[in-house]
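Entry:
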Amino acid sequence: MPLRRRRKSKSLAAQTFALGIAAPQVIAHRLARMATAGTSPSARDRAEFQRMGIEKIAAANEAWTAMAAQIFLENQKFALTFMQSLWFPWMRPTPTVKSVSRQLNRTAARVAGKGMAPIRRRAVANAQRLGRIKRGRSA
């Protein structure tokens, strides 16, 4: 079981690392594009700026939905754990502070991972897409 927990942690750490690399690239590209566009952006620039806003809202909605669903699932797991300890104390002893703390830590990592996934996915995809666009071509 410790191996599984470690894999989850690496997954969250890998997601955080990927987001930490992709986000500054996307921000730098878009800020340079805004500075270059000035007060009269081209149709392509306007489309990119509009896409930027829509994607942020969509990613936030996906992240909140995924986290809410995971929290709902985790609450059911907590309820099951405590009910089992009350109804079948010979099968599952009363939860200790240490076991509850461990369960809360795992829950927090799972919820954070679910919330990070859509944001990371979009940021990495944008970094790849914007990296292919030639900077000199803004029209």
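The mean pLDDT is 85.
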